[in-house]
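User: I'll paste a sequence; please echo it back and then give the predicted structure.

Assistant: Echoing your sequence first, then the prediction.
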Amino acid sequence: MLKTVNPNADIIGKNHALAMNIQAAKSLMGILKSNLGPSGTMKMLVSGAGTIKITKDGKVLLDEMQIQHPTASIIARTATAQDDVTGDGTTSNVLFTGELLKQASLYLSEGLHPRVIVEGFELARDHCMKFIDEFKKDVSEEKKVDTDLLMNVARSSLKTKVHAKLAEHLSDIVVKAIKCIHKPGNPIDLHMVEMMHMVHKSDMDTRFIDGLVLDHGARHPNMAKRTEDAYIFICNVSLEYEKSEVNAGFFYSNADERERQIAAERKFTDDKVKKIIDFKNKVCGESKKGFILINQKGIDPLSLDLLQKAGIVGIRRAKRRNMERLSLACGGFAVNSVEDLQAECLGHADLVYEHTLGEDKFTFIEGCQNASSCTVLMNGPNDHTIRQIKDALRDGLRAVRNVMEDGAVIAGAGAFEIAACNSLMKFKKTVKGRVKLGVDAFAKALLVIPKTLAENAGLDVQQTLITLMEEANGEGNPRVGVDIVTGKSLLPESSGIWDNVRVKRQLLHLGSLVAMKLLLVDEVIRAGRKFNKAPADPNQPVM
């Protein structure tokens, strides 16, 4: 047999390739293991520029870490893909993949062929997928909007990202935000939750706003800074002085003609402003209701002056994304012309006020009735605190959305993994031949989650696991999980510890898929210059 390979390529043979893949998975697992669960520790990431990020969110760690090893990189990309799909389960995915390969290596060292283990993994995975449907708890349409259930789901997700006190505070914000944008029968669009941040105060000052926060204020110094019970007029109309655009030359016979031309051009803009002022007088009448004009295009100084004298607050150059959210938050709709204005186009807010922070101005539009868009205002003393809150909120929002879309939840605290392991041990007895060794390895690998939860809480891992397995096999097969405070068992359903069904599905599917692919790799060929080898030409530098 003739084999032609680039002479500069690195070739790693059968046994060494498998050992390399298993070692890479175990190394990555070792890095992320200490971050799992509410008792997990933090990692500090320092970039080349000196910026600091302190986090225990698996996705952030895998995205920020510069992973060179090809096998570790595959596992990391698969785990972050799970987060992109479901919003959680990144750390669990890495641990499960690493543990599957670790358990498989015990049988491989005794001469078992990788193909046999892979067949066992496939059988075990299919069995676990069916077991999820038996184990999950369905949530009715009425329970989907039950605040207690949604709070428990958000709390279970957020406590693994931030400290307990902040997790409790953010859980309330997350549930309010999802309830605000949720419309029965329609998919939940998380883009309708605007994320704004202000670098001041503490992380506990993060709050939910049933309206919108614009990152700019009114451009006239005499306009009202605070307006209560206000109409919101959203428009996309240029209120700036515009010169006539013609393809012919103008020849004035005297200065008066030029003045009349300029006055006619100015009148074109002033007429539009006067129509808005007349509209305001018509809808407000003699009442003390406020009138806020939010325009996507510009408003020139003369127009601002006219609006201010009429008691209108004019905000110009609003961002397009805010224009879309404004009508959803306040009601009404954006108009593109000031002709024939009707009261139906107006939105309403209980309070509109301007807040100045340093050189930045923010306009708060609060108290919107029947809003289907909202804002979460993140506060923190520095940038990395705000980034940490933003990452946690993103995961929390998706965890609550998953419950509403799945229509089910699954017991957390390692309860599913323990129950699935017991189910696989019973299933193993029905499997014939050496394939049952693969099923056995899969069942043991599932226990990495409860083991790690106990280890990170400073508990005796073996004692905790034995206690849990004995109770899970007891009368009625109760769904028990790890109590990280006492080290004994608890019932996650009673304690309100819930996970997402789709996260568990993706974990079983992607974790086992990557492990199976890596087990079947028997040769690694790395193209290009050989690593750590001396160059052929002595004058050539080592790369």
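The radius of gyration is 31 Å. Residues 255-284 form the longest helix (30 residues).
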